[in-house]
Design goal:
InterPro entries: Peptidase_S8/S53_dom_sf (IPR036852), Peptidase_S8_Ser-AS (IPR023828), Peptidase_S8_subtilisin-rel (IPR015500), Sedolisin_dom (IPR030400), Tripeptidyl-peptidase_I (IPR050819). This protein is an alpha/beta fold. The protein is built from 6 helices and 22 strands. The chain has one domain: Rossmann fold (3-Layer(aba) Sandwich), CATH 3.40.50.200.
């Protein structure tokens, strides 16, 4: 079959699936544009932070563990064994030191970098919740007063801020994961008026205009006719842009992760191990969800991607922990499960990778994701596991973590800063 024929079939499949997506019931909090997304339901002890979204709106990709809340829950293999200076146990879930260990990263760096977070709606507790997280883990304070933290609306103004859109847990996850990767970085939170693609795109442009060196986007919507209208808003040479690949395994890739101007971030399951690294990873795929991957029917294949079975842009490029079962600890007082929670999804991996890029201090290398395709010696090649829908691609690299490049984990996960 010719590549042109394959592309034509992909376009037809995308249109058919988007048009016929069934209504699915979710346990998540209703969000802007609540409606059918066609995404599968998750395990009963996981809820989607932002609910569903109708066409023209994006959904965030954070998954909250409801069985690990407020410091309560079963201590799993991912729980840290360290304690705070006061001698009390740290929250369940991975903290900054765990992730530094897993990804061989320094605990400081990134001075002069500003990582922007793009989200929908206002979280009035964002700065206060961030302070709890950073104090708990001994990270330097990041506040409005000391110039480290700032929060603006999509026009770049500190007031008036938009109304709450149910993304509070997502916002907490985003700022905490940037803090975990790059505690010396400044954080700029840009809050869109709502989760429409138009308003999130404007927030993206505002973040860059305000001096962001990296921009993280933990949201998306299945690619379809019209999504490419906002492609230019995610193309800013000199600024590194990371985007979550999604939480629903192999299938239609999500916008804006499908763009060639961004780094699409997949996800892994991360566990401690008795090996030289001290950790092991596999592609994330279980009843909680799976790292998004797929072959674009709308975006041409960039020259720096050479995988054989996808004639278009292949998602993802790089990865980090995203499985809620092995997820990070997050402090959030404004969501439906206030307090310390464990949150996963590729909403965790995208801001973390943005923080790693900032830690290395080379955002200008990321006009696109091509740099990850030449620096694989500094990445952990994730081999094993699939993104929960392996039969959909016949055992292919598009949904299975294999040696070298694959869809769920891209070229791998950070192993120090050499690849950044």
């Amino acid at each position: 079959m010719t590549q042109a024929r394959i592309r034509a079939l992909l376009v037809g499949l995308t249109a058919a699936v988007v048009a016929a997506a069934p209504s699915v019931s979710f346990a998540g909090t209703p969000a802007d544009g609540a409606g059918s997304s066609g995404a599968p339901a998750h395990a009963s002890n996981v809820t989607e932070a932002c609910g569903t979204a109708r066409p023209g709106f994006a959904r965030c990709f954070s998954l909250i563990r409801t069985d690990v809340n407020g410091g309560k829950g079963v201590r799993g293999p991912h729980a840290p064994s360290t304690a705070t200076a006061a001698g009390t146990a740290l929250p369940k879930g991975y903290g900054p030191a765990d992730l530094d260990s897993a990804y061989n990263l320094p605990s400081s760096g990134g001075t002069g970098q500003t990582v922007a977070i793009i989200d929908a709606g206002n979280d009035p507790n964002a700065e206060a919740d961030l302070a709890v997280y950073r104090q708990t883990y001994g990270l330097p304070a990041c506040t409005t007063a000391n110039g480290c933290f700032s929060k603006v609306n999509q026009q770049g103004q500190t007031s008036p801020l938009p109304s709450d859109r149910g993304w509070g847990a997502e916002i907490s996850l985003d700022v905490d994961m940037v803090s975990a990767a790059c505690p010396d970085c400044h954080i700029l939170l840009v809050e869109g008026n709502d989760a429409t693609l138009a308003n999130l795109a404007q927030a993206e442009d505002t973040a860059v205009a305000l001096g962001a060196t990296e921009v993280s986007n933990s949201y998306g919507t299945p690619e379809a006719n019209g999504t490419q209208d906002y492609a230019a808003d995610y193309s800013h040479p000199g600024v590194a842009i990371t985007v979550s690949s999604g939480d629903y395994g192999y299938g239609i890739p999500n916008f804006p992760a499908n763009l060639t101007s961004v780094s699409a971030v997949g996800g892994t399951s991360l566990s401690r191990a008795a090996n030289a690294r001290g950790w092991t990873e596999k592609a994330w795929g279980n009843s909680y969800g799976g790292a998004g991957s797929g072959c674009s029917a709308w975006v041409d294949k960039p020259t720096w991607q050479t995988d054989q079975n996808c004639p278009g842009r292949m998602v993802a490029d790089v990865a980090a922990v995203a499985d809620p079962l092995t997820g990070p600890a997050v402090y959030d007082s404004y969501g439906g499960y206030p307090g310390w929670v464990v949150i996963g999804g590729t909403s965790a991996s995208a801001p973390y990778i943005a923080g790693v890029i900032a830690l290395a201090g080379n955002p200008g290398r990321y006009a696109n994701a091509s740099y990850f395709y030449g620096g694989t010696a500094g990445l952990n090649d994730v081999v094993g596991g699939n993104n929960a829908k392996a039969t959909d691609c016949g055992g292919d690299y598009q949904c299975n973590a294999v040696t070298g490049y694959d869809g769920p984990t891209g070229n791998g996960t950070p192993n120090g800063l050499a690849a950044f």
